[in-house]
Amino acid sequence: MIEFKNIKKQFGDKVVLDGVSHVMETGKSNLIIGTSGSGKTVLQKCLVGLFEPDEGEIIYDGRSFTEMDEEERKMLRQQIGMLFQGSALFDSMTVEENIKFPLNMFSKDSNAKKMDRVNEVLERVNLKGANKKFPSEISGGMKKRVGIARAIVLNPKYLFCDEPNSGLDPVTSMVIDKLIHELTIEYNITTIINTHDMNSVMEIGDNILYMVQGKKEWTGNSKDIIFSDNKQLNEFIFASEFLQDAKSMRMLEAEGKLSKEQLKKMEENR
């Protein structure tokens, strides 16, 4: 669990985070959503220590991250996995070498044991046998899966994902969403995802934080969001092409992901 209380951050005269408090739950996909400039990226950077909040407290499973010294933070970061928006793979390294990189930095295991772990996570993300390929030789979806494999290779307790579906087609996006969600449950990880993808919100939104101009505007899950009376949230959600498309909504109903009441509510807001 990651809890943050009254987080404030400003750059010059611009207030980017204005007293944000929330709890990110373990074993769930915790989503941060909002328009560009809402503060969600700055919030995520504060949570991992890339930015220091001006006020407030960040707590990792009862341990105050805010009060930790640099050595304590370094130890905690070994429990954090990161999936970057552009995958951030090293072009000059093979898939195997990219995934092994955190092990070389933080693990004292033998090379054989490291390779066992590399192959284990490769198989878990359905990339068995892709060891010797370079990033230039694989698709965008495969790069994301390599990024996920690298993020989980150290068995993290916390996983941060920045726009994991950026640049992916809808089908591949759903594959990545499902994989992240499965790993979150399987390894009991506290997963925090910044996203604009409304498909992700509906599919894996266990715990959603919606932000507007640096403030917490709404919280709930993927079922709650359909029935929300929050005007700003509805405008944000129903502006999505995914939810405006009547065919997509009918498909969701047919698949049992939407009830008739939910569908009616969505159509009224179109």
TrEMBL record:
Keywords, in A-Z order: ATP-binding, Nucleotide-binding, Transport
InterPro entries associated with the record: AAA+_ATPase, ABC_transporter-like_ATP-bd, ABC_transporter-like_CS, P-loop_NTPase
Pfam family, one: ABC_tran
GO molecular function, one term: ATP binding
Residue ranges constituting the ABC transporter domain according to the UniProt record: 2-238
Protein name in UniProt: ABC transporter ATP-binding protein
